[in-house]
Structure formats: structure tokens, C-alpha cells
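Hello again, I could really use a second opinion on something today. I owe you a coffee for this, so here goes:
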Amino acid sequence: MADVNRGNRPLSPHMSIYRPQLTSISSILTRITGNAILLAALLIVWWFLAAATSPEYFAIANGVLTSWFGDLVMFLSLWGLWYHTLAGIRHLIWDYAIGLDLDTAYKLGYAVIGGSVVLTLLTVALI
């Protein structure tokens, strides 16, 4: 019969002892921003559909999207779009087996984060 004494066996790493790394966080953030971009696109489609429906319904949708909450959602969606785009470019670089060593992967991760912030601020400033 199998030994059921599991008290002396080592446990696999868990969130309490696992230290998140930049590469894992950026991978998770890429997935989150992809889904957030989809939700922002649905909000914009809702705005367009409201504009095609009636002036009263458009006033409601426009009020939501031009409120401080709507501005925040659109600003964060813009950042998510830039982040997701730059992370996709980073993955294209990795597909060519370039920059797979740990130091370069961390530099690319910081470049994606910094570049997305800079491009977001430039986009907001120019629009």
C-alpha cells in the first residue's frame, strides 16, 4: 500500500513563498489588457449604438463615457492598448529567438512598461 504519511514530504511552491518575476507579471498583464481592450471596445460600440438609437439613449451613453469614470476607463484602455501592442512586438522578437536570455528579457519587460506609459501620455497630449 502507498505511504500516506505526507507530513515529511516537501510541498510545491505556493503563492505565499513564490516571488513573482517581471516576466510572469508581464505575461499576466498582457492577458488582462487584452480582455480590458475588448471591454473598452464594447463600451465604444454601445456608444455608437446609442447614437444610432435615439437622442435620449445617446445622452445616457455619452454621459457615462464622458464622466470622470468614463475618462478613467478610456485612459486605462489606451494604456492597455499600448501595453498589449508593445508586448506583442516583444513576443514577435522572441519568436525569432532574439532576447531570450534573462537580462534581455528583463530589459524588454521594462521597455514595454516604460514605452506604454510614454506612448499613452504622448497620445493623450496630442489628442
